[in-house]
Specification:
The structure holds 2 protein chains of 2 kinds. In chain A, 75% of the residues lie in helices and 0% in strands. Chain A contains 14 helices and no strands. In chain B, strands 1-2 form a two-stranded antiparallel sheet. The longest helix of chain B has 41 residues. The two termini of chain B are 38 Å apart. The chains are: A mainly alpha, B mainly alpha.
């Protein structure tokens, strides 16, 4: 199938114009758009079938049934991907709703500017409850991350040494905060921290979150250290560097991507955590997720959607950072010998 | 090292290191040093985790059996009660009541009697008010000259003559108790030993069952939806699959609260899903297709109901809980109840946990050579045979890893069921939270938590055997 005929190229657009034009007579913007899209699809699909272009992607020996299954499978997968991403995509436009509804109003669907507004964002930035929650989150998460990254990196280096007694037992203990259900951790911490007077304090929440973030640091840093060439530290020692200098000048730059991504995991764990802070914290430590949780449980207000959209943007940024770090780490590992 | 010791035997004397000590000794010393150094690096974190995490868990386990309050608040009474036979059907004698008067004077001065009252109230309702009423009048009792305390207590509150009250006090006088654990499996301590609670008071067994069944349902949904996606990610060209991977990783990285609130918004009665459905029913396509879809749906529901009916028949024999029959669909403009029930919990949690299934499955499938499939087909296998006999067995480790991971996460979930689950779609963890923050029955919360913890640790152990803790990968 070398070249497509002109008619097959034009068909989708003809379909778009016909059905879109038909729908335009109703004067309804969403119907017009939908009609145009369906028209485009029908035009494309007709010639896709007529010109047997569906055969292009499958091996020539496929039977009709196999070809059908090949495309049906892709449609199923597409549906699952839609299921995965829809909730996140739906939240974003809804957060610009001018009404206090949780569904698309007719004005929004008509792309009427009056249907959209930034009022939920204004509410978020002007409401003391939300601003306090942001402040608490920003105070707690970095401290917890700092604690878990410092202790975690040291321990990961220790765990990567060739001879570590009780390695499995130690590893099991260090990973356990990730495995134990949060409600159990929260219950235990609530009981124990109220015994020692840490319940309802800033330090208590930071310690609890640091403990929850540690497994992620351990896992990512140990994984980076697997690719670390130990002869580099020996070479540094050979040239007269003391262990501390070797660590900061040789080892640290190489394992930095792992440390940072472990730190990001720890940060997001703390930033996104609600169960433990609900029990260990008091009103003074009300974090952003806690505020969202109360909002969802008691009086659900559309401001939550604005917060959700902002949080999605933050996670997109985090995801990008992590991906870049992973690539850098792979590049560095490819460069180091062995 | 074995080489070293071997060569050390051949010459006359032991091989010496540069400083004159035997080489074997000096090597051992170096090994010891390196072990110590590794431990020194690990120690701060280990201590940190032990204090901030393991100690709380241990505290919770301890609280699930701890029961010092009775013997601490009423030390003399519990000692005097040792001679009383709870099966006698009569209240204890004067010595016990005298001891009770002495104990209560102290307890009321320390304001401990209300705590004891609410503790014992978990076992027998009414004791809390009994202790509070008695506490107000206990100052009238004259310890030095007073006589016949039994009558005096009976005057304050009739219930003191009730042998059942005394049986409860006696049953809970030891410092450790299995009472909370019995409570959490719908049993209670009686004077004759452990017994099941009356049917109308049994909630926890049902709740454990529901947690288990819903976690299983969520895990199977995740396998069903995750397998095709993982397959396509592993078999597409790297460029396309990396792009599609974003669709998996973005939800994975998005805040749990964001996804839960998205589902809460979408599944509402007036939410996006219901609005779309109503709009669809009103279109021409919807009007034509509705009867067809309804018929197909009702046939499926009929089949399910047949299975449920047989299940209920069988469960009647071995005493499990009955499952409700599904209501038949009557497709029209009515809105579906998608939230505050089991459906809501399962939809939202499947979405939230799906990446945890896809990522391990993908990492296993990426290592399966496509040549195996081609070889199978070249030898005459049909597509299905090639998949079922060659590809699927190789992907089982991925299914195992993903399923255990999803199941462990699902069984202890709290936030999502709390928000979208209503009353029917909640898990055992919601009950634990309720006992900690609302009913303040911490012992029972600890016991329920311990049972859940045991279940999770068992699964964790299985996960370690199948996958290995070291192989836990994050973000693909």
């Amino acid at each position: 199938m070398a070249t497509r005929s002109t008619i097959s190229r034009a068909a989708p657009w003809i379909g778009l114009v016909i059905l879109g034009g038909l729908a335009l007579t109703t004067g309804n913007v969403p119907y017009t758009l939908l009609g145009a899209a369906i028209g485009w699809f029908i035009g494309w699909f007709l010639f896709w079938i007529i010109e047997r272009r569906y055969r292009q992607n499958v091996p020539t020996y496929y039977t009709a049934g196999q070809t059908l299954w090949y495309y049906a499978f892709r449609v199923i997968c597409g549906a699952i991907f839609t299921f995965l991403i829809t909730p996140i995509l739906v939240v974003m436009p809804l957060s610009f709703n001018a009404q206090d509804f949780f569904t698309f109003t007719p004005e929004m669907l008509a792309f009427d500017p009056a249907g959209y507004s930034l009022k939920h964002y204004r509410d978020f930035f002007n409401n003391d409850d939300w601003q306090n929650a942001v402040r608490n989150s920003v105070q707690i998460a970095p401290m917890a991350t700092l604690l878990s990254v410092t202790f975690g990196t040291l321990a990961a280096i220790g765990l990567s040494q060739p001879h570590v007694p009780f390695r499995r037992a130690i590893m099991a203990i260090l990973i356990s905060p990730m495995i134990v259900p949060l409600i159990i951790s929260a219950a235990g911490m609530y009981f124990f921290y109220s015994r020692i007077g840490l319940q309802g304090t800033y330090i208590g929440v930071v310690l609890a979150h640091a403990a929850l973030g540690i497994p992620f640091v351990i896992i990512t840093v140990t994984a980076t250290l697997v690719g670390f060439d130990n002869s580099l530290t020996r070479a540094a020692a050979n040239m007269g560097a003391d262990p501390v200098r070797t660590f900061f000048k040789v080892q640290m730059p190489l394992i930095l991507p792992g440390v940072i991504s472990g730190g990001l995991f720890a940060f997001i764990t703390s930033f996104d955590e609600v169960v433990v802070v609900l029990f260990v914290g008091s009103a003074g430590q009300k974090t952003l997720p806690w505020q969202m949780f109360t909002g969802l449980r008691e009086q659900i207000s559309p401001t939550i959607l604005a917060v959700a959209t902002l949080l999605v943007l933050i996670s997109v940024m985090l995801l990008t950072t992590l991906e870049l770090l992973r690539r850098r780490s792979e590049r560095l590992r490819g460069m180091s010998p062995g | 090292m074995s080489d070293m010791t071997h060569t050390a035997k051949t010459p006359a004397g032991p091989v010496l290191a540069a400083d004159g000590t035997p080489l074997k000794k000096s090597l051992n010393k170096a090994l010891r040093l390196s072990k110590l150094r590794a431990l020194a690096l690990i120690a701060p974190l280990l201590i940190f985790v032990l204090v901030t995490f393991i100690a709380p868990i241990a505290d919770m386990l301890f609280r699930s059996v701890e029961n010092q309050i009775v013997s601490e608040t009423l030390p003399k009474t519990t000692a005097a009660l040792a001679n009383w036979d709870s099966a006698s059907g009569e209240a204890p004698d004067e010595t016990v009541f005298r001891a009770l008067a002495e104990d209560l004077k102290v307890a009321v001065a320390n304001k401990d009697h209300t705590k004891l009252g609410s503790r014992l109230n978990y076992e027998k309702t009414g004791i809390s008010s009994l202790f509070r009423k008695t506490g107000r009048k206990v100052k009238d009792l004259d310890l030095e000259n007073g006589t016949d305390f039994k009558a005096q207590f009976a005057k304050i509150e009739e219930d003191w003559l009730d042998p059942e009250v005394w049986a409860v006090i006696k049953t809970y006088s030891p410092k450790l108790t299995n009472g909370y654990f019995l409570n959490s499996v719908d049993m209670q301590k009686t004077s004759e030993g452990a017994a099941f609670r009356p049917d109308n008071q049994q909630i926890y067994i049902t709740l454990f069952w529901r947690t288990l069944l819903m976690s299983l349902a969520i895990t199977s949904m995740c396998i069903l939806l995750g397998y095709p996606v993982a397959w396509i990610l592993a078999n597409l060209p790297a460029r396309t699959s990396n792009l599609l991977m974003i669709l998996v990783l973005l939800p994975f990285w998005t805040s749990l609260l964001v996804r839960t609130s998205a589902w809460k918004v979408m599944l509402q009665q007036q939410g996006v899903v219901n609005d779309t459905l109503v709009w669809y029913h009103s279109t021409a396509v919807g009007k034509v297709l509705d009867p067809v879809v309804t018929t197909i749906l009702n046939i499926l529901i009929g089949l399910l109901n047949a299975v449920t009916w047989v299940w209920n028949l069988l469960s009647g024999i071995w005493g499990a809980m009955d499952v409700e029959l599904f209501t038949y669909a009557n497709m029209g403009f009515e809105r579906l109840a998608l939230i505050n029930n089991v459906t809501g919990t399962i939809i939202a949690m499947t979405h939230i946990l799906l990446p945890f299934m896809i990522l391990p499955l993908y990492s296993v499938m990426a290592t399966i050579q496509p040549t195996y499939l081609r070889a199978a087909k070249s030898m005459g296998a049909t597509n299905w045979t090639a998949f079922w006999r060659v590809y699927f067995p190789q992907s089982i480790p991925g299914i195992g890893a993903g399923s255990i991971l999803v199941f462990i996460l699902a069984i202890g979930y709290y936030i999502t069921p709390e928000i979208v689950g209503g009353t029917k779609g909640v898990f055992i963890s919601n009950r634990i939270a309720y006992h900690i923050s609302s009913s303040l029955n911490w012992g029972l919360a600890a016991a329920l938590g311990s049972i859940l913890l045991a279940a999770v640790l068992l699964l964790y152990w299985a996960y370690d055997r199948i996958v290995g803790i070291d192989n836990v990968k994050l973000g693909g």
